[in-house]
Every structure is written in C-alpha cells, then in structure tokens.
Amino acid sequence: MPGAAARVRMSARPALRAASPAFRLSQTSVRRSAPLVRAVEGQRNPKQKPQLLAPAGGWPQLKAAVASGADAVYFGLTELNARARASNFAPSEIHDVVAYLHERGVKGFVTINVLVFDDELPLLEKRIRLLAEAGVDAVIVQDLGALALIRKVAPHLPVHSSTQMSITSGEGAEFARERGVKRVVVGRELSVQDIQSVHEGTSAEVEAFVHGALCVSYSGQCFSSEAWGGRSANRGQCAQACRMPYGLLVNGELRVMGDEKYLLSPQDLAALDMVPQLIEAGVSCFKIEGRLKGPEYVALTTRLYREAIDAAFAADDDDDDDEQKPFATSQQDWDDLHQVFARGQDATHRGLTPGFLEGSKHQRLVRGRAPRHRGVFVGEVTAVTKRGVRVWLSGGGSGAMPSVAPGDGVVFDAGQPEQDEDGGSVFEVIDHGTHDGEDREVELRFGKGWIDLQNLHEGMLVWRTRDAKLERRIRASYDGVDKRAGVVCEVRAGTVGEPLTITLRDQDGRKGVGISDVLLQHAESRPLDEAAVQRAIGELGGTPLCIERSDVRIASGLFLPAKGIKVARRSAVDALLAARREHTRASDMPDGKVLSALKTRIAEEGLPRRDHGDDDVRSASSKTMPKLTVLCRTRQQAEAAVACDVDEIILDFLEVHGLREATEAVQAAGKRAVVATPRILKPSEERLWAFYLRLEADALLVRSAGMLYRLRLLGGAGATVSDGPAKGCKVPPLHGDFSLNAANTLAAHDLLETGGLERLCLTHDLNAKQQVELAKELGVRAELLEVIVHTHLPIFHTEHCVFARFLSDGDSYVDCGHPCESAQVHLRSHDGQDHRVMADMGCRNTVFNAAAQSGACYVSELAASGFGRFRIELVDESADRAREVVQGYQSLLRGDITDEQLMRRLDLIPDANDAVQGVGLGSLEVRAERDRSELSKTNAKWAKMDE
C-alpha cells in the first residue's frame, strides 16, 4: 500500500511521479495555462529597477530606513495591523510620517494586514479616509472585506495584498488583482522559479520577502496561537508557538533527538546573493521583514540590499552578452548580518539561509537546536577561573577569526535555551596567545555580580550577542543623516522691473516656483552673474533637497540683492515640498458613510437561488436543525459516515490514491460526495483542477484563492469545460472553506456573490458568538454558511516537512525516502499533548491540535442564527471512533443527549496512540481578545531582540 501511495503523490517537486498520464505535470507544461496567459498577455512592463521596502516599527526605525536607502517604508498604526507588539504609529502621527517620507522621495505603505471583524469595520472606514487624506502610497491588506471597503471608500488608494493572503500562484495573484490589488506579496515558501511563474501568470506587480524571520506555517494559515492562547496570528497577536520545543513521537514511541528540540523553528531568510536571480524572475519589490526589530537592524539590512540591488541592476544593464554577472556579498557584510540578527544557530549553522528560494532544503531550513537570536559564535569555554572564563576562539569555520572586546555582550550556551542562560557585558579581555596562527585563547572578565561563574563549565558554547564597535558603526551610518532628494534648479532673470524666478523640479516632474520679493534693477557696478546666484541659493542645506543640476539664465546688466534670491529659493523649496507631500492625497472620496450603504445593500439584495446548487438548504422559516456534513480523511472513515446515514461526506484524502473509488462509493450509497482541494496551490500544481473535475463529485471544497479563480475562469459552477484535459466535464457547485479567511460580512458577501461560492465556512478566527452575529447580518443567506462544530484545529500548515527533516537525510521528496508513507508522527508539546502531523499530496505538513474542539454547547444558537450546515472533521480516527463521534452529534441534534453529555463522551475518545487528549471549546470559545496594551512592546535594542 505505501508503494501505491508513492506512485500517485502529487508533488511540486522536480521528480513528480504519478500513476497515469493525467498526473504527469511537468514544470513547463503547467506553468501557464492558456486562458490565464491570454488574460495577462500584453500587459507586461519592461524591466524596471525593483523597489526596496524596509520595515519601521517606530520613528527611529523609519528614519534609519530612509537614511539607509529605502525606496519605501511599511509601517502600522496602533490598531488593525499584524505587529501588535511593535511601537507603531498613532493615527494622529500619520500626516507627519507621510510628509517626512514624501519630502525625501520615499513612499509610505500602511499595513492593515489582519482579519477585520464586523464591529471593527466602522473604525476601518475612518482609518481608510485618514490614510487617503494623508496621502499614503498604498495599504497592505489581508482581509477581503477590508479590500472591498477600501475600493469603495478610497477608489484611487493603491492596495497591496499581504503575504497573509496566502498567494502562491499566478491564479491566486489574479484573484487579488481582479479585486483591485495592484501588487501581491507572495508566500515565503516559493522558489525563485515559482516566483517567476507567478510573475508570468499575472499582470499585478510581485513583491517578495528577501530578509528576516520565516514563519514555519504558511502566512494566513496558522492557527496555533488561536488554538492555545486565544491570540490569533491573523489578528497580529502571534504567540510564536513554532519557536517552542517539541518532542517527536514516531509510531507511538518518543524518539531520542539529542539537542534537536525546536522542530518547527526555521533559521532566518537572507537572499543577498540571490538578488540578480530575483530581479530576473520579475520581482518588483524586495521586502525586508522586521517591524519588531530595532533601527540598527533596519539600517544595516536596508543598506546592504540597497547596494546589492544597485549593483545587480547596473550589472544587468551593462551586460552586453546577456549573461548574468556574478554578485557576492563580502564576508564582513555576512558577519554583520549574523551579528545584528540571525536565528537558530549552532557552531556550524549561522542562522541565515536562502529559505525556500532555492527550493525545499529541509535539512538546512530547521536546525532545531535553538529558537532565538544568538549573534556570532566565537568559541568554547576551556576553563572557569576565579575572576572569569577562558574561551577558545574559533568561530566554527565562518571564515573570519571572531573577537570579543570590552563592552561586547556574550551569552554562555549549555544547550538548554528554554532555561535562563548566563551572559552579560564584557568588562575586560585578557589575551592568552595565538595557536597555529588561527585559533587563540582569551579570558573574559565581567563586572562584579554580573555573571554567576558557578553556572559555567568547560565545553559551553560562547556567543557574542552584542558587538559594541559594530553598533557604533551602524549608528553612525544613519544617526543625524538626512536623505536628500536631488532636484534641478532653474533660475530665470530677464527684465528690469520683474522678479527673479527660481523653479525646482524633482525626478517625478513635480515643481516648486518661487519669486524674489524685490524686482530686478539696472546694475550700477556689479551685475548679477551665475556665480552670485548660486552662492545665494547655496546647496539647499537644512532641507531634504539637494541640487543635482542647475540651469541659470540671466540677462546682462541686472542686479538683485542676495536677500531677494534667498526669498525666491525658500519659496521654491516650500512649494516643491508641499507638492511632494500632497501629490498622493485623495480628493475624490465619496461623502457619507460608505460602510452603512454597503451593509444595507447586502441586507436587501439577497442571493439568487441556483439551479445547480444545494437542494438541501433550509428555508428561512425552517425550525429544524442544520444537517450534518462529515469530513473524512480515510476510506474507512467515509464508510463509517455512510453507515451513520450522513447525507453529505467531504473526502479530504492525503493522497489521490483511492479518491475516485471513494467518491463513487459515497455516491452509490445515495450520499453527496464533496471533494476537498488543497489549501495551497503552487505554480507546478495549477492544473490539479482538471483532476478534480474528472472525479465528477457533487461539489468541490475550495480552499485557495488560486483554485477559486481557476474554476471561475472556466465558467463557474454549472459550466462545461470546452477544451483541455477536463474537456466535457462540468464544474460542480463550489464550497469555500475556512482557509479563505472570511471574517466579516463584506468578505462573506464577496466570496458568495463575486466569488461564485454556494456555501462558505467562516474562518477559525471567529468565535461562536461572532459567527452567530455574522450569520444574522446575512439574513436569509446565512443558510449558505457552514460551521465546523467538531475538529482538531489545523494549527500549522507548512511547506517544511517534519518527516523528511527528522526521519531521513533527504532535503525534498526526491531523496527523502518518503517516511510519511510508513511512519505515524506526533509532536509532543511542553504540556504533554501529542499533535498529529500529516503530509498531503504536495508534501506539505499539517499539524493538528491534540485536543479536539467542539461547539456542542453552541449548536442551538448557531442553528437559530440560520446556519445551513454543521460540519464534523475527522483526522486519524478509526472507523469505530469516527462512528462514535458522528453518532454523538446526531444524538445531540435530535435532542437525545445534552451538550454536557456529549462533551463527556468526546473527552474520553483516545487518539491513534490510544492516548486521551481531551476536548474543549477551542477557537469557538467566547472570550475577550487580549488587548494590545497587554502585549509586551519590543525593545528597540537590536542586540536583545528575540522575535
């Protein structure tokens, strides 16, 4: 059986294998399907220099980014953004921020990159107006409802889709573009080749992360914080569960892992050496992650990527033979980057990798030894003296001899990063000599009471967490440095009795004109000349402008006091700066409250009945309970659900093997068969739609924007495919899953109406009360909503493969040996719970929460609010346990048992290892979201950052 599964695994990997020709999808053949090519053909711009986008968690970081060469800066307000723990900017500051940036020729992007709840939409409308009036250059959004509101409130305000929108294909990018998105930020899991495919498959601009932290889960698809802390990552309150230690259970046995504890904590991303390839791939904007980091980090990363982009673009322009010229980052630059921030290092892993840009390399991505920034490895403890610690400096083969100087910070690493570690500022360094011309031994001494020497011992690793000299050098590069935009200065003085005119023009064609406050006169002794004018104008010191070129035209025999010239200069500067500040300010926003009008229209218009849609949705007056749908991941579970007389079954098999037979078996039993599609659709998987259509299921559960766009491009539900690999197949009704992240009425309306869905499951970020309120907002159309009343929350959905990394020596599907086909894996968290890990047909891993979550106590309220369907999701339950779960809910809905009785039954159902993990309310629990003021603000000291 494992062999059969292997033959049909649908992987995005180069060595794609399949059981039939229908599955042989080469990278070339699936890159761009014909209809999509036609949709974007002819819209390509000639190659332009990519923009460099730097992060700013506050004013110090923003000024550092500008001084270091950023083309644009992204930042958030104190609400509605994905970095709640950053200092951020108050709404009252936004005009000053935008003015500061625009005067210096830098763009400002504001993040609204969270899911927005219905009760927050009025605030969002106010903020959209504020941002448009202030002249921000773009807003970065995740939420489809927020996107719809922006397009109505400020139609000319550019919108960029956040990486939280989980866009990983050209079709996903087109889904966003047709909703008004100008630029898409692609998932960090894409390779350079994938990014190029996205670029070729959309007319939207493509932005990619090039440096900073890597989330292990696909952005927008992580529910670990929601499951365990009630503080969702989709709401800007990530609890960083991926940075926690986990044990590895293989087939029920706890595996001895040595120092590998942080199994889900990737090293950080660094793509400096890949800048030329990314430019060639069509990336329009290079994005640096780090709004939680300090100004030193921002300054260094921005400067280095500025230099890399400039060098690579210049080399590309000068390349006559059309060959790529090599580009390399110096060892000193790499050392500096590792020092300011790198994560997950050990003596040989320095904490920065290309991530997924070179494809899947699981052995490299996650080291597993430590989850946080260490700095630079300098050596090992050789002895503990009465006054200090002797350290053998080696640097672990980094290529440069490390050093430690007074004022530097160090930490002593015993391989237990989850515990408190000793470290501090070095007071004195005593050199004990060089050995073999390479390594040397030093003694580090500290201030009295700073270090407990009794906790230290021989063999401990030593890290330099702070380099005082580097810190001073970086600060000097931006502190007091003000970026000045180059302008052309035109001076005209032609006729006696008229004023002298100064015109300043910037690179974008904006101009400022100033005239002298006195009129030109006949010169009696010293006539006005070009040198005198330039002396009076000066270099525009004290302003964010500098003169790059002058064009001075003065008629002979004229005179004007220098004071008059300076008046004209000041007026021209003020006028140009005003033009630079105001050029993006909105002036065409509609009057009145747009949101109220939108919601009124949604409430009034209703959705038309569809002939090909569900025939089992309840009427508005129905008093019966919603029907049950059961999601099954094995054939045995599906057979158990059929035996329980469930009328609709979702087939969410991890492999395509057996899916057709299971679909036919469910339909033969007189039940509706719905087939689940992947949550992530990468470029090499874009033709999976044909396989799913050929199954002839009663409906498809759509989980990604890319798949939804493709199926709509084919004509949507009811359409017959006219050509291609699914010629003659009909597009069945489309159901949207939680992964589409509908969190408010506007988003739900968009997906149901514009998106062509006939049923929609809301995001897990909504608790039961919020789902009830949203259903009420939709009125009769709430019958098209489905709520998951039982599940093991999918806490992580990752491109990184736990099986390949820790059960093989392989880097990808090509060489891992496919341990996922024989090994049953759980991750044991610090509280002793075991979370099941499963690999899907694309080799992506899903980690399911150990404890089930149940909405049993909410079913009456949910039913009364109009929900049309209740869903039960099974994970790895046996047929008997699946039957027990389904029959329990059937008894509850009939009124045979109470919700308390059902919860007691569910609480005793064991997992696949016969261990009882329990049940709770999970994300459905009605509880207050943590206030942002309760979240610890980040320290602006780059050397101490742990995020």
From TrEMBL:
This is Peptidase U32 collagenase domain-containing protein. Residues 462-580 form the Peptidase U32 collagenase domain. It comes from Pycnococcus provasolii. It comes from the Eukaryota. It holds the Pfam family Peptidase_U32.
